[in-house]
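User: quick one, fold this
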Amino acid sequence: MYISSMMFKYLLYILLILFKTTFAYSEIVNDIKVNGNDRVSKETVILFSDIKKGDDIDNSTLNKSLKNLYETNFFEDVKVSFDNQVLLITVKELPVIQEIIINGIKRKTTVKEIKDVISLKEKNPFNQAQIKNDLNLILNLFKQTGYYLVDAKVEVVDNNNGTVNIVYNINRGERASITKIEFIGDKKFKNRKLHSIITSEESKFWKFISNKKYLNIERINLDKRLLKNFYLNKGYYNVQINDAYSSIINNEEFILTFNIDAGKKYFFGDLTINLPEDFDPKKFKNLNKTFLDLKGKKYSQNDIQKILDEIDKIALFENYEFIDANVTETVNNDKIDFNFDILETNKVYVKKINILGNNITSEEFIRNQLIVDEGDPFNKILYNKSINILKSKGIFGSVSSRVIDTDENDQKIIDLIIEEKATGEISAAAGFGTDGSSISLGIAENNFNGKGINLEGDISIGKDSVKGSLSYTHPNFAYSDRALTTSLQATTTDKLKDYGYKSSLNRAALGTSYQQFENFYFSPSISISSEKIETASNASTAYKKQEGSYFDTLLNYSLSYDKTNSPFQPTDGFYSSFFQELPLASDQLTIVNGYTFTSYNELGDDFVVSAGIYTRAVNSLENNKDVRVSKRLYAPQRRLRGFETGKVGPKDGEDYVGGNYVATANISTTVPFIFQTLENTDVKIFFDAGNVWGVDYSNTIDESNKLRSSTGVAVEFLTPVGPLSFSFAETITKASTDVTESFRFQLGTTF
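Assistant:
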C-alpha cells in the first residue's frame, strides 16, 4: 500500500512539474525550506536534494532532486516546489524498523542467519516493497538445508510512534527427505554406476546422522556437475544434464530425478600444436608422443587438462614466462580434432592478489597453495592451475576469480573469491558376511584451525579385532610443500580360537608424503610400537616360543607410480607400488618387502579389464629366530577367492601359521551386457591364482609347490539396505591342506 500511493504521488507531481509554467527560465535559489522531517535533519534533506543556495534551478533540476530524495529510501512521499526564489521540500518519512521478531525458530544461530539474509534491518527505514522479496529469501534459506515445505507469514505492527515491528511467523515443518533417486533419459550407464558418482543419498532409517538424504539445492547442483564431468571423461562430448527435479510423494518425501542426455560417444582425432617462431619444437616433442597415444581413444576432458599441464611444465622449465594456450576444437562426425595454439603474450606482472570470502580459512594457507604470487609474471596457465589446486583441497564450496586491469598496462590485480563449506565429517559403516559382522565409526575435520589441517579419529570392531586410531596431517609443514602426518593406533587381534594367539599392539608414527616427480610419489615414515603376544594352552611349541612383549622402531617407505585416470574406480592406466619396512631398533629384527601392480583397460562403457599382481615377503634378520606370528603373511581374501581366508598355506598341527612369502595374480573383467536390464546390478568374471609358502622352522606341513587357482563370478547388488556383493568361485588347483569356500557374501552400508 505504501509503494502504490508513493508512486502515484510521484508520477502526479512529475506531471505537474512538466506542465508548470510559473517560470520558463532558470532562476537562482535564495532560500531552502524543509517541512515534514522529524528524524532526518534539514541539512541531510538538503544534501540529498543536491541543491544549495545560489544554484541556478529549472524544471530539470527539480525533477532530478525529486528522484534523488526518493532514492534515499528515507521517505514515503516527497514534494518539491519553487516559488519566489524559495525552494520548498516537503517530506513524509518512512517509519523506522524498531524490531524484527522471528517466531517459530528457537535456534539462535538460525535466527541470526535469517536476519543476515533479509534486506530489511532494525533501525533502518521500512519499505513495504521489500517484504515480499525478504520472504522469498527466507524460504530459499530453508530450502538450502532441506526444508521445502516452510509456512512463513509476515506481519507489520505499527507502534504509532513512527516505528514498526516486523514479525515473521515461521513453521518450517519437517525436512524434505529423498525417498528415491532416479536417472532417466539417454543415460548409457546403469543406475548403480550413476549413484556412485553423486553425493545425494536415498533416505534410509540407518542414515540418521547423514545430511545427504535431504533435498539440498547446492548439493543437487554439485551432483549435476559431477555427472557431467563423469560423462565428459567417458567420451560424451555433448552430454547435457537437462534438469534435476523433485516430485513430492507426501508432505515430507520426494523423488529426485536427473534427466540425462548423453548423446553419442566421441573420440580423439588429430591433435596438433602451433608454437611461436622463437620456440624450440624439440622442447615439446613429448607432447607429440602424447598426441599419437590419444588419437583414436575416447574423448576425455581429463586428457585435455593433462596436455595443458604438460605445456605448463615445459613453459616453467624453459623459462617461457609469458605464454597462453588457446585450444581450438573441430568436430568431424564422431572425431574431435584439437589444436593447441601457444602464444607469447605481453609482459604482464601480478601487482596484488586479494583473498575474499575466507572467514575460517587462513589467508596464509590459501596463498601457500598458489603457484602465482605477487610480483610474479602473470602466466594464464599457472593462474588457472592455482585455481584448480584450491578447488582440489575439498574444503571450499566454490573458488572463483577475476583479473582486474590497472592504470599500469603491465600490472594486473587478481581477486580470489572463496566460498567456504562445512568441513567436519561424521561417518559410520556396518557390514555382515561370511567372515562375520563389523562396524566402524569415525569423525574428521578437514580444515582444522583454518589451515587445511586434517584431524581424524575412528574405531572399528570386527570378528576378531578391535582397532582405534587418531591422526593429524599438516598439508604444508614448515612451508615445505610436503604433508606431515602423525598418528596413534591401538589394535587388539584375538585369534586364540582359530590360530592360537592374541596380539595387543600400540603404535605411534611420524611420516610425510609428496610427489617427487610427475605421477611418482614418495612416502617415508618412522614408527615406534609395542606388542604383547599371548598364546593358547594348546598352541604349538613354535607359537609358545613367541609369547611375550616386543618393542620396535621401524623405518617404512613406499614408492608409487600412478598413471590411472582416476583415484576412484579407474578405467585406464596402471598403478605400481613398492614398499619396505626396515628395523632400526627392535627386539626381533625382520624386514618386510612388498610390490603391487594393477593395470586397467576400458574396452567399452562399463566394460573394464583389470590385471594385477600382489607380492609380500617377510624375513628374519637373525639366525635361529622365527618371524613373529603377528607379522606372518596370508593371502588377502579378495585376491584369492574360492579359499577360506587365512586357511591356505603352511600348517603347524591344526594351526594355519602363514608364510614368509605370498604372491597372487588376478584378472577380472566387468560384463555389463549380463543383466543389462537390471539397473542396480554389476557382474564381474575373475581368475585368481596365488600361493603362500615359506616357514622358519621344520615342524610344519607345507605344500609350497602347489599353486592355488580359481575362477568365478562376482555380483554386486544395490539393495535398500546397502550394497550386497557375493561371489561364486570354483577352485582349479589346490593343496590337500587348504580349506575351500565356493560362496562368499558381504552386505555393508555407510550412514
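User: anything notable?
Assistant: The chain has six domains: 2-93, 96-171, 177-261, 267-344, 349-420, 424-750.
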